[in-house]
């Protein structure tokens, strides 16, 4: 091969590496699609298991391939985030959610994130744990974050209640996302290559394909979780869209991590409503909506109990 110009050899090597990377990414996407089918239709789960094994997917670090991080039971984690620990519309909504879930027989775990909670990445070690995983050399995951991750892992249903500040979630909830939705816990990155990046740039402008891309552009591990979000804002609901904010970073991050976003309820224009309007019209209407969500959660929880073998298995991985 000495007669082959070095530039040509380099180009051939790049092409081979690119083809290998694209092939690995395609196999992982196929594996994630099989996981989704197996979770949605338990009757075909054995066939999905067999297909997953035939793909022989192997992570680059040599560890066993984890199709997703299975919930331990069909319970609900209710995350209330508000800078104030006192009375608030968000707290009233959280109480409605809690009571409605309990009325449907759903076990509820409460997590309150307040102004005094110091969440988010505090130093280089925590940054490394978030980006590379807590097993990485020099990484550190605080015990409080480990406890939060255990709750997220345990519960199949995640409910978030928060206000909107400057078109997004409060800084405390942003800190929760940075620390809890870490690499290795909530997601893995898929192999990257310029061909994939170019394809993503094209798909971004195709509505149906863009929705699929949200599901499979990342290797999200929270694939069996269903999420409900209730957010409050002082201004009109159109305010988010007018300034180009169709979704918050929480909604995008949860989808990136593979979770199903079942509903986002915006309780808006609070600044222009009187106390009577809030108590006699808005809250009763919201209560009805939340009760419907809880009935759907109850049905899904019953189905999960009937199909208790949640994890899809990879043999000899």
Notable characteristics:
single chain, 317 residues, alpha/beta, Rossmann fold, five-stranded parallel beta sheet, two-stranded antiparallel sheet, 7 strands, disordered C terminus
Overall description:
- It is a single chain.
- The chain is α/β, with parallel strands linked by helices and 317 residues long.
- The chain has a domain of 210 residues: Flavodoxin domain (Rossmann fold, 3-Layer(aba) Sandwich), CATH 3.40.50.
- The protein is built from 11 helices and 7 strands.
- A 5-stranded parallel β-sheet has the order 2-1-3-6-7, with helices on both faces. A two-stranded antiparallel ribbon has the order 4-5.
- Helix 3 packs parallel to helix 11.
- The chain is globular, with a radius of gyration of 22 Å.
Q: How are the secondary structure elements laid out?
A:
Blueprint: H1 6-40, H2 45-55, E1 73-81, H3 89-103, E2 108-113, H4 124-132, H5 143-154, E3 155-163, H6 171-180, E4 187-188, H7 194-203, H8 207-216, E5 219-220, E6 226-232, H9 238-242, H10 249-256, E7 260-267, H11 275-306
Parallel strand pairs: 1-2, 1-3, 3-6, 6-7
Antiparallel strand pairs: 4-5
Helix pairs in contact: 1-2, 3-11
How much of the sequence lies in strands comes to 5-15%
Helix content: 40-55%
Helix run count: 11
Shape assignment:
globular
Mean pLDDT: 84
- The topology string of helices and strands comes to HHEHEHHEHEHHEEHHEH
Low-pLDDT stretches? 309-317
The name of the CATH superfamily of the domain at 63-186 and 221-306 reads: Flavodoxin domain
Q: At CATH's second level, what is the architecture of the domain at 63-186 and 221-306?
A: 3-Layer(aba) Sandwich
**Order of strands across the widest beta sheet?**
2-1-3-6-7
Q: In CATH terms, what is the fold-level topology of the domain at 63-186 and 221-306?
A: Rossmann fold
Largest sheet features: 5 strands, parallel
User: Would you count the extended β strands for me?
Assistant: 7
């Amino acid at each position: 091969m000495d007669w082959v110009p070095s530039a040509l050899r380099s180009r051939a090597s790049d092409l081979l590496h690119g083809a290998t990377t694209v092939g690995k990414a395609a196999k992982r996407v196929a594996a994630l699609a099989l996981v989704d089918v197996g979770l949605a239709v338990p009757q075909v789960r054995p066939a999905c298991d067999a297909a997953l094994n035939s793909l022989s997917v192997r992570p680059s670090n040599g560890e066993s391939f984890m199709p997703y991080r299975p919930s331990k039971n069909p319970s609900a984690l209710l995350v209330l985030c508000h800078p104030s620990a006192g009375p608030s519309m968000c707290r009233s909504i959280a109480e409605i959610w809690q009571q409605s879930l309990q009325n449907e027989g759903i076990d509820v775990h409460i997590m309150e994130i307040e102004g005094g909670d110091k969440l988010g990445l505090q130093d280089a070690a925590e940054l490394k744990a978030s980006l590379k995983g807590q097993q990485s050399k020099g990484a550190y995951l605080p015990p409080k974050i480990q406890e939060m991750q255990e709750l997220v892992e345990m519960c199949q249903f995640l409910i978030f209640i928060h206000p909107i500040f400057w078109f997004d979630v409060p800084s405390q909830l942003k800190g929760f996302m940075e620390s809890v939705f870490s690499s290795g816990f909530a997601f893995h990155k898929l192999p990257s290559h310029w061909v994939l990046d170019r394809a993503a740039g094209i798909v971004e402008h195709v509505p149906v394909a863009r929705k699929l891309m949200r599901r499979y552009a990342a290797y999200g591990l929270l694939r069996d979780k269903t999420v409900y979000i209730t957010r409050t804002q002082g201004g009109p609901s159109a305010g988010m869209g007018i300034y180009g904010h169709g979704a918050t970073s929480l909604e995008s991050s949860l989808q990136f991590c593979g979770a199903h976003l079942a509903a986002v309820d915006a309780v808006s224009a609070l600044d222009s409503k009187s106390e009577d309007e809030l108590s006699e019209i808005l809250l009763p209407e919201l209560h009805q909506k939340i009760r419907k969500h809880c009935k759907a959660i109850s049905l899904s929880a019953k189905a999960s109990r009937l199909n208790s073998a949640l994890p899809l298995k990879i043999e000899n991985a």
